[in-house]
Amino acid sequence: MDIYDVLLRDFPFLLKGLGVAIVLLAALLSIGFVLGMAICLTQLYGPKSRFVQWPLVIYERIFRGVPIIIMLFIFFYGISGVVDISAFGAAILAMGLRSGAYQSQIFRSAFQSVPAGQMMAARAMGMSKMSAIRNIIFPQAARHAIGPWTNEFSSEIKETSLAYVIGVVELTRQAHYIITSTQGNILTVFAVVALLYFILNRTGNSLLYAFERKLAVPGFEK
Amino acid sequence: MANDLILDVQDVRKAYDGLEVLKGISFSLCKGETKVLIGPSGSGKSTLLRCINYLTVPDAGRIYLNGEEVLDTNIDAIRARIGFVFQDFNLFSHLTVLDNVRICQIKVNGKRKDAATERAHQELERVGLADKAGAYPAELSGGQQQRVSIARALAMDPEVLLFDEPTSALDPELTGEVVRVMQQLATEGMTMVVVTHEMSFARQAADEIIFMENGYIVEQGSPEIMFTDSRQERTRAFLNVIAEHG
Ligand SMILES: Nc1ncnc2c1ncn2[C@@H]1O[C@H](COP(=O)(O)OP(=O)(O)OP(=O)(O)O)[C@@H](O)[C@H]1O
Ligand SMILES: [Mg+2]
Known about the structure:
The complex is a heterodimer of chains A (about 220) and B (about 250).
Chain A: H1 3-45, H2 50-65, H3 68-80, H4 87-112, H5 116-124, H6 129-159, H7 171-182, H8 186-215
Chain B: E1 5-16, E2 19-30, E3 34-38, H1 45-52, E4 60-65, E5 68-69, H2 75-79, E6 82-85, H3 97-107, H4 113-126, H5 142-154, E7 160-164, H6 172-187, E8 192-195, H7 199-205, E9 208-213, E10 216-221, H8 223-229, H9 233-245
Parallel strand pairs in B: 3-8, 3-9, 6-7, 7-8
Antiparallel strand pairs in B: 1-2, 1-4, 4-5, 9-10
Bound molecules: adenosine-5'-triphosphate and magnesium ion.
Keywords (chain A): Amino-acid transport, Cell membrane, Membrane, Transmembrane, Transmembrane helix, Transport
Membrane topology (chain A): Multi-pass membrane protein
InterPro entries (chain A): AA_ABC_transptr_permease_3TM, ArtM/GltK/GlnP/TcyL/YhdX-like, MetI-like, MetI-like_sf
Protein backbone atom coordinates (compact mmCIF):
# COMPACT_ATOMS: atom_id res chain seq x y z
CA MET A 1 0.00 0.00 0.00
CA ASP A 2 1.47 3.34 -0.90
CA ILE A 3 1.01 6.38 1.27
CA TYR A 4 -1.97 7.69 -0.68
CA ASP A 5 -3.92 4.50 -0.09
CA VAL A 6 -3.04 4.73 3.57
CA LEU A 7 -4.10 8.33 3.70
CA LEU A 8 -7.35 7.49 1.97
CA ARG A 9 -7.97 4.58 4.32
CA ASP A 10 -7.06 6.53 7.43
CA PHE A 11 -8.59 9.84 6.41
CA PRO A 12 -11.58 9.27 8.70
CA PHE A 13 -9.11 9.18 11.59
CA LEU A 14 -7.70 12.49 10.54
CA LEU A 15 -11.21 13.89 10.35
CA LYS A 16 -11.91 12.51 13.79
CA GLY A 17 -8.75 14.22 15.02
CA LEU A 18 -9.91 17.41 13.38
CA GLY A 19 -13.23 17.02 15.18
CA VAL A 20 -11.46 16.67 18.51
CA ALA A 21 -9.41 19.76 17.72
CA ILE A 22 -12.58 21.68 16.89
CA VAL A 23 -14.31 20.64 20.10
CA LEU A 24 -11.21 21.58 22.06
CA LEU A 25 -11.09 24.91 20.26
CA ALA A 26 -14.77 25.66 20.85
CA ALA A 27 -14.51 24.72 24.51
CA LEU A 28 -11.38 26.71 25.24
CA LEU A 29 -12.65 29.76 23.38
CA SER A 30 -15.96 29.61 25.23
CA ILE A 31 -14.31 29.31 28.61
CA GLY A 32 -11.91 32.05 27.62
CA PHE A 33 -14.75 34.26 26.45
CA VAL A 34 -16.80 34.00 29.62
CA LEU A 35 -13.73 34.34 31.82
CA GLY A 36 -12.19 37.13 29.77
CA MET A 37 -15.41 39.13 29.75
CA ALA A 38 -15.92 38.65 33.48
CA ILE A 39 -12.37 39.77 34.20
CA CYS A 40 -12.62 42.75 31.87
CA LEU A 41 -15.90 43.95 33.39
CA THR A 42 -14.57 43.48 36.92
CA GLN A 43 -11.39 45.35 36.11
CA LEU A 44 -13.20 48.25 34.49
CA TYR A 45 -16.42 48.50 36.45
CA GLY A 46 -15.99 46.28 39.51
CA PRO A 47 -14.80 47.10 43.02
CA LYS A 48 -11.49 48.94 43.02
CA SER A 49 -10.36 46.99 46.10
CA ARG A 50 -6.98 45.37 45.61
CA PHE A 51 -8.32 42.13 47.07
CA VAL A 52 -10.46 41.93 43.96
CA GLN A 53 -8.09 43.45 41.42
CA TRP A 54 -4.76 41.90 42.34
CA PRO A 55 -5.75 38.25 41.92
CA LEU A 56 -6.98 39.13 38.44
CA VAL A 57 -3.70 40.78 37.52
CA ILE A 58 -1.69 37.87 38.91
CA TYR A 59 -3.84 35.36 37.05
CA GLU A 60 -3.47 37.28 33.82
CA ARG A 61 0.30 37.64 34.16
CA ILE A 62 0.85 33.97 34.95
CA PHE A 63 -1.25 32.61 32.13
CA ARG A 64 0.23 34.97 29.61
CA GLY A 65 3.75 34.50 30.90
CA VAL A 66 4.13 30.71 31.01
CA PRO A 67 4.45 28.60 27.83
CA ILE A 68 1.25 26.69 27.16
CA ILE A 69 3.12 23.44 26.88
CA ILE A 70 4.29 23.81 30.49
CA MET A 71 0.76 24.69 31.56
CA LEU A 72 -0.52 21.56 29.84
CA PHE A 73 1.94 19.40 31.76
CA ILE A 74 1.19 21.14 35.06
CA PHE A 75 -2.55 20.81 34.61
CA PHE A 76 -2.50 17.22 33.43
CA TYR A 77 0.03 15.78 35.87
CA GLY A 78 -0.79 18.20 38.65
CA ILE A 79 -4.52 17.71 38.67
CA SER A 80 -4.54 14.03 37.83
CA GLY A 81 -2.62 13.45 41.07
CA VAL A 82 -5.60 14.82 42.98
CA VAL A 83 -8.70 14.07 40.92
CA ASP A 84 -9.23 11.90 37.90
CA ILE A 85 -8.95 14.15 34.89
CA SER A 86 -8.66 13.13 31.27
CA ALA A 87 -5.96 14.61 29.07
CA PHE A 88 -8.75 16.23 27.07
CA GLY A 89 -10.23 17.80 30.21
CA ALA A 90 -6.83 19.06 31.33
CA ALA A 91 -6.18 20.57 27.90
CA ILE A 92 -9.54 22.36 27.84
CA LEU A 93 -8.92 23.72 31.31
CA ALA A 94 -5.34 24.87 30.77
CA MET A 95 -5.99 26.36 27.36
CA GLY A 96 -9.35 27.86 28.35
CA LEU A 97 -7.82 29.58 31.35
CA ARG A 98 -5.01 30.90 29.24
CA SER A 99 -7.34 32.13 26.53
CA GLY A 100 -9.32 33.89 29.27
CA ALA A 101 -6.20 35.85 30.19
CA TYR A 102 -5.69 36.90 26.59
CA GLN A 103 -9.35 37.60 25.89
CA SER A 104 -9.62 39.76 29.00
CA GLN A 105 -6.95 41.98 27.48
CA ILE A 106 -8.67 42.09 24.12
CA PHE A 107 -11.97 43.03 25.73
CA ARG A 108 -10.42 45.53 28.08
CA SER A 109 -8.73 47.53 25.39
CA ALA A 110 -11.88 47.33 23.26
CA PHE A 111 -13.98 48.73 26.11
CA GLN A 112 -11.36 51.36 26.80
CA SER A 113 -11.37 52.53 23.22
CA VAL A 114 -15.00 53.59 23.59
CA PRO A 115 -14.78 57.32 24.35
CA ALA A 116 -15.68 58.29 27.92
CA GLY A 117 -18.32 60.69 26.58
CA GLN A 118 -20.47 57.74 25.51
CA MET A 119 -20.90 56.51 29.07
CA MET A 120 -21.33 60.08 30.28
CA ALA A 121 -24.09 60.83 27.78
CA ALA A 122 -25.89 57.60 28.63
CA ARG A 123 -25.72 58.25 32.37
CA ALA A 124 -26.74 61.88 31.84
CA MET A 125 -29.95 60.66 30.26
CA GLY A 126 -30.75 58.51 33.27
CA MET A 127 -29.46 55.12 32.17
CA SER A 128 -28.15 52.97 34.97
CA LYS A 129 -24.53 51.91 34.70
CA MET A 130 -25.56 48.36 33.83
CA SER A 131 -27.95 49.50 31.14
CA ALA A 132 -25.35 51.87 29.70
CA ILE A 133 -22.75 49.11 29.57
CA ARG A 134 -25.19 46.75 27.90
CA ASN A 135 -26.84 49.13 25.44
CA ILE A 136 -24.15 51.67 24.65
CA ILE A 137 -20.65 50.52 25.60
CA PHE A 138 -20.81 46.81 24.81
CA PRO A 139 -22.08 47.14 21.23
CA GLN A 140 -19.27 49.57 20.46
CA ALA A 141 -16.61 47.56 22.27
CA ALA A 142 -17.71 44.44 20.38
CA ARG A 143 -16.96 46.19 17.12
CA HIS A 144 -13.51 47.12 18.35
CA ALA A 145 -12.86 43.63 19.72
CA ILE A 146 -13.76 41.50 16.76
CA GLY A 147 -10.53 42.08 14.83
CA PRO A 148 -8.18 41.20 17.70
CA TRP A 149 -10.51 38.36 18.67
CA THR A 150 -10.10 36.90 15.20
CA ASN A 151 -6.35 36.82 15.82
CA GLU A 152 -6.89 35.01 19.10
CA PHE A 153 -9.12 32.52 17.30
CA SER A 154 -6.45 31.83 14.70
CA SER A 155 -3.63 31.36 17.16
CA GLU A 156 -5.73 29.07 19.36
CA ILE A 157 -6.51 26.82 16.39
CA LYS A 158 -2.83 26.31 15.92
CA GLU A 159 -2.16 25.83 19.60
CA THR A 160 -4.72 23.05 19.93
CA SER A 161 -2.08 20.86 18.28
CA LEU A 162 0.03 21.18 21.44
CA ALA A 163 -2.55 19.16 23.38
CA TYR A 164 -0.78 16.32 21.62
CA VAL A 165 1.99 16.36 24.26
CA ILE A 166 -0.29 15.16 27.05
CA GLY A 167 -1.89 12.53 24.85
CA VAL A 168 -5.04 14.16 23.53
CA VAL A 169 -5.86 12.33 20.32
CA GLU A 170 -6.42 15.37 18.19
CA LEU A 171 -5.41 15.97 14.60
CA THR A 172 -1.65 16.11 15.10
CA ARG A 173 -1.60 12.92 17.14
CA GLN A 174 -3.75 11.11 14.60
CA ALA A 175 -1.23 12.13 11.99
CA HIS A 176 1.53 10.79 14.16
CA TYR A 177 -0.26 7.44 14.43
CA ILE A 178 -0.46 7.20 10.68
CA ILE A 179 3.19 8.02 10.32
CA THR A 180 4.35 5.45 12.87
CA SER A 181 2.09 2.75 11.47
CA THR A 182 3.35 3.31 7.95
CA GLN A 183 6.93 4.11 8.91
CA GLY A 184 7.63 7.22 7.01
CA ASN A 185 6.02 9.69 4.63
CA ILE A 186 6.15 12.30 7.29
CA LEU A 187 6.01 15.12 4.79
CA THR A 188 2.96 13.88 2.92
CA VAL A 189 0.96 13.20 6.04
CA PHE A 190 1.83 16.50 7.64
CA ALA A 191 1.09 18.31 4.41
CA VAL A 192 -2.44 16.93 4.54
CA VAL A 193 -2.69 17.87 8.21
CA ALA A 194 -1.40 21.36 7.47
CA LEU A 195 -4.05 21.70 4.80
CA LEU A 196 -6.78 20.68 7.26
CA TYR A 197 -5.62 23.23 9.83
CA PHE A 198 -5.43 25.83 7.11
CA ILE A 199 -8.96 25.15 5.89
CA LEU A 200 -10.29 25.31 9.45
CA ASN A 201 -8.50 28.59 9.99
CA ARG A 202 -9.72 30.19 6.79
CA THR A 203 -13.30 29.05 7.36
CA GLY A 204 -13.33 30.47 10.85
CA ASN A 205 -11.74 33.70 9.72
CA SER A 206 -14.25 34.09 6.89
CA LEU A 207 -17.16 33.58 9.26
CA LEU A 208 -15.77 36.12 11.70
CA TYR A 209 -15.08 38.55 8.90
CA ALA A 210 -18.66 38.17 7.67
CA PHE A 211 -19.85 38.85 11.21
CA GLU A 212 -17.65 41.94 11.37
CA ARG A 213 -19.13 43.17 8.11
CA LYS A 214 -22.61 42.56 9.42
CA LEU A 215 -21.89 44.74 12.45
CA ALA A 216 -20.19 47.40 10.37
CA VAL A 217 -21.37 50.92 11.05
CA PRO A 218 -19.99 54.17 9.63
CA GLY A 219 -17.50 55.56 12.09
CA PHE A 220 -16.17 52.16 13.11
CA GLU A 221 -13.97 51.51 10.11
CA LYS A 222 -10.58 50.16 11.00
CA MET B 1 -44.57 82.42 41.95
CA ALA B 2 -42.80 79.84 44.05
CA ASN B 3 -44.45 76.88 42.41
CA ASP B 4 -42.93 77.93 39.10
CA LEU B 5 -39.49 77.23 40.45
CA ILE B 6 -37.94 74.49 38.30
CA LEU B 7 -34.34 74.49 39.39
CA ASP B 8 -32.96 75.73 42.66
CA VAL B 9 -29.22 75.58 43.22
CA GLN B 10 -28.18 76.41 46.77
CA ASP B 11 -24.63 77.12 47.86
CA VAL B 12 -22.99 74.45 45.72
CA ARG B 13 -19.30 73.86 46.37
CA LYS B 14 -16.78 71.67 44.65
CA ALA B 15 -13.03 71.22 45.00
CA TYR B 16 -10.60 69.07 43.04
CA ASP B 17 -7.64 67.98 45.16
CA GLY B 18 -7.91 71.02 47.38
CA LEU B 19 -8.45 73.39 44.46
CA GLU B 20 -11.80 75.05 45.02
CA VAL B 21 -13.59 75.33 41.70
CA LEU B 22 -17.06 76.26 42.98
CA LYS B 23 -17.09 78.42 46.08
CA GLY B 24 -20.75 78.52 46.98
CA ILE B 25 -22.94 79.01 43.94
CA SER B 26 -26.64 79.76 44.24
CA PHE B 27 -29.12 80.55 41.54
CA SER B 28 -32.58 79.50 40.52
CA LEU B 29 -34.59 79.07 37.40
CA CYS B 30 -38.31 79.46 36.89
CA LYS B 31 -40.38 77.66 34.32
CA GLY B 32 -39.73 78.98 30.83
CA GLU B 33 -36.66 80.96 31.80
CA THR B 34 -33.38 80.91 29.92
CA LYS B 35 -30.27 81.79 31.86
CA VAL B 36 -26.92 82.16 30.16
CA LEU B 37 -23.80 81.37 32.12
CA ILE B 38 -20.66 83.17 31.03
CA GLY B 39 -17.17 83.54 32.42
CA PRO B 40 -13.53 83.01 31.60
CA SER B 41 -12.05 79.58 30.97
CA GLY B 42 -11.58 77.67 34.20
CA SER B 43 -14.13 79.72 36.12
CA GLY B 44 -16.17 76.60 36.87
CA LYS B 45 -19.06 76.84 34.40
CA SER B 46 -18.85 73.23 33.25
CA THR B 47 -18.32 72.00 36.77
CA LEU B 48 -21.44 73.86 37.91
CA LEU B 49 -23.53 72.46 35.08
CA ARG B 50 -22.29 68.94 35.77
CA CYS B 51 -22.99 69.31 39.47
CA ILE B 52 -26.62 70.01 38.71
CA ASN B 53 -27.22 66.46 37.51
CA TYR B 54 -24.44 64.90 39.58
CA LEU B 55 -22.20 64.01 36.64
CA THR B 56 -19.83 65.64 39.07
CA VAL B 57 -20.91 65.15 42.66
CA PRO B 58 -20.78 68.43 44.59
CA ASP B 59 -18.97 68.54 47.92
CA ALA B 60 -21.67 70.65 49.53
CA GLY B 61 -24.88 72.47 48.75
CA ARG B 62 -28.34 71.42 47.70
CA ILE B 63 -30.04 71.19 44.35
CA TYR B 64 -33.77 70.93 43.86
CA LEU B 65 -35.58 70.00 40.69
CA ASN B 66 -39.21 70.99 40.90
CA GLY B 67 -38.99 70.82 44.66
CA GLU B 68 -37.37 67.41 44.75
CA GLU B 69 -33.85 67.29 46.11
CA VAL B 70 -31.20 65.79 43.85
CA LEU B 71 -29.52 62.96 45.74
CA ASP B 72 -27.34 59.96 45.06
CA THR B 73 -30.31 57.75 45.64
CA ASN B 74 -32.68 59.24 43.06
CA ILE B 75 -30.10 60.37 40.54
CA ASP B 76 -31.09 58.19 37.59
CA ALA B 77 -34.70 59.32 37.84
CA ILE B 78 -33.62 62.96 38.21
CA ARG B 79 -31.25 62.77 35.25
CA ALA B 80 -34.02 61.46 33.04
CA ARG B 81 -35.81 64.76 33.73
CA ILE B 82 -32.80 66.97 32.96
CA GLY B 83 -31.57 67.28 29.40
CA PHE B 84 -27.84 67.74 28.95
CA VAL B 85 -26.25 68.90 25.72
CA PHE B 86 -22.50 68.42 25.53
CA GLN B 87 -19.90 70.46 23.74
CA ASP B 88 -18.80 67.44 21.72
CA PHE B 89 -22.31 66.02 21.16
CA ASN B 90 -21.60 62.49 22.43
CA LEU B 91 -24.12 60.88 20.14
CA PHE B 92 -24.14 57.10 20.47
CA SER B 93 -21.94 56.32 17.53
CA HIS B 94 -23.16 52.78 16.82
CA LEU B 95 -26.78 53.88 16.56
CA THR B 96 -28.65 55.65 13.79
CA VAL B 97 -30.00 59.12 14.39
CA LEU B 98 -33.45 57.66 14.96
CA ASP B 99 -32.15 55.17 17.52
CA ASN B 100 -30.15 57.86 19.26
CA VAL B 101 -33.32 59.83 19.84
CA ARG B 102 -35.31 56.72 20.67
CA ILE B 103 -33.16 54.55 22.88
CA CYS B 104 -33.46 56.41 26.18
CA GLN B 105 -37.17 56.94 25.73
CA ILE B 106 -37.44 53.16 25.64
CA LYS B 107 -34.69 52.04 28.03
CA VAL B 108 -35.08 54.80 30.61
CA ASN B 109 -38.64 56.06 30.35
CA GLY B 110 -40.08 52.67 29.45
CA LYS B 111 -41.96 53.94 26.43
CA ARG B 112 -43.22 51.56 23.79
CA LYS B 113 -41.23 51.45 20.62
CA ASP B 114 -43.88 52.91 18.32
CA ALA B 115 -44.56 55.81 20.69
CA ALA B 116 -40.83 56.47 20.98
CA THR B 117 -40.44 56.33 17.22
CA GLU B 118 -43.21 58.81 16.67
CA ARG B 119 -41.78 61.18 19.24
CA ALA B 120 -38.29 60.82 17.78
CA HIS B 121 -39.56 61.82 14.34
CA GLN B 122 -41.31 64.84 15.85
CA GLU B 123 -38.17 66.03 17.58
CA LEU B 124 -36.03 65.47 14.50
CA GLU B 125 -38.53 67.51 12.56
CA ARG B 126 -38.27 70.22 15.18
CA VAL B 127 -34.48 70.51 14.78
CA GLY B 128 -34.76 70.31 10.99
CA LEU B 129 -33.32 66.83 10.51
CA ALA B 130 -36.34 64.76 9.60
CA ASP B 131 -34.51 63.45 6.56
CA LYS B 132 -31.51 62.18 8.55
CA ALA B 133 -33.28 59.58 10.70
CA GLY B 134 -31.45 56.68 9.07
CA ALA B 135 -27.98 58.22 9.09
CA TYR B 136 -25.22 57.38 11.54
CA PRO B 137 -23.54 60.14 13.57
CA ALA B 138 -20.28 59.78 11.64
CA GLU B 139 -22.18 60.70 8.49
CA LEU B 140 -23.35 64.06 9.84
CA SER B 141 -21.70 67.45 10.15
CA GLY B 142 -20.96 68.76 13.62
CA GLY B 143 -23.90 71.12 13.47
CA GLN B 144 -26.23 68.30 12.50
CA GLN B 145 -24.85 66.08 15.24
CA GLN B 146 -25.45 68.77 17.81
CA ARG B 147 -29.02 69.24 16.59
CA VAL B 148 -29.59 65.49 16.92
CA SER B 149 -28.26 65.62 20.45
CA ILE B 150 -30.73 68.41 21.22
CA ALA B 151 -33.53 66.29 19.74
CA ARG B 152 -32.34 63.36 21.83
CA ALA B 153 -32.60 65.48 24.97
CA LEU B 154 -35.98 66.95 23.99
CA ALA B 155 -37.51 63.55 23.37
CA MET B 156 -37.18 62.81 27.08
CA ASP B 157 -39.57 65.66 27.99
CA PRO B 158 -36.97 67.35 30.15
CA GLU B 159 -38.08 69.84 32.79
CA VAL B 160 -34.88 71.76 32.18
CA LEU B 161 -32.20 71.66 29.50
CA LEU B 162 -28.53 72.27 30.29
CA PHE B 163 -26.18 73.27 27.48
CA ASP B 164 -22.40 73.22 27.96
CA GLU B 165 -20.88 75.30 25.17
CA PRO B 166 -22.99 73.60 22.50
CA THR B 167 -21.34 75.47 19.64
CA SER B 168 -17.72 75.58 20.77
CA ALA B 169 -16.69 72.44 18.92
CA LEU B 170 -18.27 73.65 15.68
CA ASP B 171 -16.81 75.43 12.69
CA PRO B 172 -18.04 79.05 12.73
CA GLU B 173 -20.31 78.51 9.73
CA LEU B 174 -22.14 75.72 11.58
CA THR B 175 -22.87 77.53 14.83
CA GLY B 176 -25.82 79.43 13.34
CA GLU B 177 -27.98 76.38 12.75
CA VAL B 178 -27.54 75.24 16.36
CA VAL B 179 -28.06 78.70 17.83
CA ARG B 180 -31.27 79.06 15.84
CA VAL B 181 -32.63 75.83 17.32
CA MET B 182 -31.76 77.04 20.80
CA GLN B 183 -33.38 80.41 20.18
CA GLN B 184 -36.50 78.70 18.97
CA LEU B 185 -36.59 76.58 22.14
CA ALA B 186 -36.19 79.66 24.31
CA THR B 187 -39.06 81.33 22.47
CA GLU B 188 -41.25 78.27 22.91
CA GLY B 189 -40.81 78.47 26.66
CA MET B 190 -38.24 75.76 27.29
CA THR B 191 -36.44 76.15 30.60
CA MET B 192 -32.70 76.29 29.93
CA VAL B 193 -29.29 77.00 31.39
CA VAL B 194 -26.79 77.72 28.66
CA VAL B 195 -23.04 78.06 28.95
CA THR B 196 -21.96 79.84 25.78
CA HIS B 197 -19.75 82.47 24.25
CA GLU B 198 -22.43 83.25 21.66
CA MET B 199 -23.26 86.75 22.83
CA SER B 200 -25.90 87.24 20.17
CA PHE B 201 -27.79 84.33 21.72
CA ALA B 202 -27.29 85.70 25.22
CA ARG B 203 -28.55 89.11 24.12
CA GLN B 204 -31.63 87.83 22.38
CA ALA B 205 -32.68 84.76 24.31
CA ALA B 206 -31.49 85.17 27.88
CA ASP B 207 -33.80 86.30 30.62
CA GLU B 208 -30.74 86.65 32.76
CA ILE B 209 -27.00 86.47 32.29
CA ILE B 210 -24.87 85.06 35.08
CA PHE B 211 -21.22 86.02 35.07
CA MET B 212 -18.91 83.60 36.90
CA GLU B 213 -15.28 84.01 37.80
CA ASN B 214 -12.98 82.02 40.08
CA GLY B 215 -15.80 79.86 41.35
CA TYR B 216 -18.07 82.74 42.32
CA ILE B 217 -21.02 84.39 40.68
CA VAL B 218 -19.70 87.91 40.21
CA GLU B 219 -22.83 89.48 38.83
CA GLN B 220 -26.16 88.55 37.31
CA GLY B 221 -28.80 90.52 35.54
CA SER B 222 -30.83 91.03 32.43
CA PRO B 223 -28.92 91.24 29.13
CA GLU B 224 -29.70 94.96 28.84
CA ILE B 225 -28.11 95.70 32.15
CA MET B 226 -25.19 93.29 31.76
CA PHE B 227 -24.25 94.46 28.30
CA THR B 228 -24.66 98.18 28.80
CA ASP B 229 -24.51 98.93 32.46
CA SER B 230 -22.84 96.13 34.42
CA ARG B 231 -21.67 97.30 37.78
CA GLN B 232 -18.65 95.10 38.01
CA GLU B 233 -15.47 96.13 36.27
CA ARG B 234 -14.61 92.46 35.67
CA THR B 235 -17.87 91.75 33.90
CA ARG B 236 -17.31 94.67 31.56
CA ALA B 237 -13.73 93.60 30.88
CA PHE B 238 -14.87 90.06 30.07
CA LEU B 239 -17.69 91.19 27.80
CA ASN B 240 -15.30 93.49 25.98
CA VAL B 241 -12.90 90.65 25.33
CA ILE B 242 -15.74 88.45 24.07
CA ALA B 243 -17.07 91.25 21.90
CA GLU B 244 -13.68 91.71 20.26
CA HIS B 245 -12.98 88.02 19.64
CA GLY B 246 -16.48 86.70 19.16
N1 LIG C 1 -12.14 66.27 36.72
C1 LIG C 1 -11.35 67.30 37.13
N2 LIG C 1 -10.27 67.04 37.90
C2 LIG C 1 -9.49 68.07 38.32
N3 LIG C 1 -9.70 69.36 38.04
C3 LIG C 1 -10.76 69.66 37.26
C4 LIG C 1 -11.63 68.65 36.76
N4 LIG C 1 -12.60 69.24 36.04
C5 LIG C 1 -12.32 70.56 36.06
N5 LIG C 1 -11.23 70.81 36.80
C6 LIG C 1 -10.67 72.15 37.07
O1 LIG C 1 -11.68 72.94 37.58
C7 LIG C 1 -11.59 74.26 37.07
C8 LIG C 1 -12.90 74.66 36.45
O2 LIG C 1 -13.11 73.87 35.29
P1 LIG C 1 -14.40 73.99 34.40
O3 LIG C 1 -14.27 73.01 33.32
O4 LIG C 1 -15.61 73.91 35.26
O5 LIG C 1 -14.27 75.48 33.83
P2 LIG C 1 -15.08 76.17 32.69
O6 LIG C 1 -15.56 77.45 33.23
O7 LIG C 1 -16.10 75.25 32.13
O8 LIG C 1 -13.95 76.46 31.61
P3 LIG C 1 -14.04 76.42 30.01
O9 LIG C 1 -14.62 77.72 29.57
O10 LIG C 1 -12.61 76.29 29.61
O11 LIG C 1 -14.87 75.25 29.61
C9 LIG C 1 -10.41 74.28 36.11
O12 LIG C 1 -9.31 74.79 36.80
C10 LIG C 1 -10.20 72.82 35.81
O13 LIG C 1 -8.85 72.57 35.55
MG1 LIG D 1 -16.38 74.29 30.29
